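Handoff note, outgoing to incoming analyst
You'll be picking up this chain. Sequence as last confirmed:
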Amino acid sequence: MSAFGNYGKLLDVNLTSGELSDFQIPDEYLQMYIGGKGLGARLLWDFLPTDGSADPLGESNVLLFLLGPLVGHNVMGSARYVVMCKSPLAKFVAEAYGGGFFPYALKGTGYDGIILRGKSPTPVYLDLIDGNKELKDASKYWGKGVFEVHDDVVKKYGKKVRTALIGQAGENMVRFAAIINDRNRAAARGGVGAVMGSKNFKGIFALGKERAPLHDADKFKNINQEFRHQLVKEQKIRERFGVYGTSGGLGYLSKSGILPTKNFQKGEFSAHAMLSGQYMEESGLLVGRDTCSACTTFCKRKIDGEYNGHPLTQDGSSLEYETLAAFGSMILNSDIKLSGYANQICNDYGLDTISTGSVLAFGMEATEKGLGKDLGLNLEWDNAEQVVEAIHKISTRDGYGDLLAEGVMRIAKKIGGKEFAMHTKGLEVAFHEPRGKIGMGLSYAVSPRGGSHMEGYHDTITMRENSSPKLGAIAAMSRFDPEGKAPVVANFENARSFTNRLIMCAFDVAITGRHYNLDYLNDITSAAMGRNIDHDEMLKLGSRAYNMLRMVAVREGCTSTDDDLPDRFKHEVLHYEEGDIALTQEKLDLMLKDYYEFRKWDESGKPTDTLIAELELPDWN
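Most recent structure output, in case you need it:
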């Protein structure tokens, strides 16, 4: 069977021996898992030790860079890649997505992704420029930041070469180290950069002109034109979303009581306007916009200015919502320039800004409560100088930074503070408040990777009638009501897991409202791959990907006891017009019971044999 949309092969890199070879993806895997998240989940099942014994920072862990069948074919939102492995931060698995221009460059090398195995005896990088396939000595780059290495590569090979790199944080195996591509995009969550560092692998340099074949190129072109027209002309995504990008929603979130503030102690931040996209523009800080391959939305912010004598570079300090919350409301900072500088040095060191902001907020609350003094922890709320110092210390594991580099779950185990350690399964919770989005709290709890906001469901998008009939959101649903949420949450997760196989940007995928466009994606994938994907098949494919990764997590030790939320969400109320609300254990248990039944998991949270047979997943043995 031809691998339409894909090449049908991955570059298999044995870092221990230095051997490079082609890994032929089984035809069955391409049909059943397509690419991206689905293929990654299946390969983790195949490659990780079956007894769960792999050390995340050891040679037995495998690191996967994966693309999808739409990457490289001029589809808006398709410039994405995913990195997957056993997580050194979370308890079980890591699943980190990045965008920009690197994904198209990597697809242009003639591969659907890369497998990294073992550990190199010395620092290396992978040269995939213009048909070359070679591991090269990275000694001169080791110990240097992302910006310096990227700029040196571009100077040597030209601006079309794209890079995916770790900085010093990855080299020092900070558990929430990120992989930075194109200088300012990040595959950030779960510590994938630390795994690269543990393997003495500095990064990938990519440039190529290959294109995967399409099954029906004419049909693909016509559907793609319709999809683009719908986004640009009907949805008017550039006018609606491109103006402020993700930074435009801070005011709404604070007004709705769901802007995480002071380590989730509050849902409103009085100074939110000073961090918003609107202020970014009005203050003159915003000087331009950037985008990813094939996309005309231009949602990326370009800012220019300085913070405390440090220049804010246009391609290093761009501010997205999560980062504004991380270095804003979470730590009670109202200086957007500090947020920009903090983001810039995180990009250079290679750090996940969500986890970094959470760790800083935890450290500030711990200090306030007298914890960690014997380890030198002394962080104050809204102390700009300490924020900058702490990021440096985390990245180099210097002093108290060595403690913070472990992430909030491990910090709390060492110094106390479990009641305000804001993580699920070890992954710091993203900055969307589940006491004001009950269903999102369920997604946080059950996600195999931990507290990610990108599984698909946000309660605020189903508050209207018929918000997404095809996904089960017909009646208007209160964002505070747990009743009936579980099936809708699972359907949204399945839809997102399908688009994460392709791999599509969430901003170009409309799963609710009159601009719902999943049908376009079903049709365009069918034209690319030569198979029929309707709505039911889409949800089945998505469910297969979600449950395959759940099975990996279960084999790594995940049980129903891990499907939980931080104590703060369950025991501390936030004040809304509807009343004082917490996402209590009773509410969570109600949703979990319904969710397990809908998913066909047993009481321990394990996919049943019935489900495995339905989805044609591998047996447990």
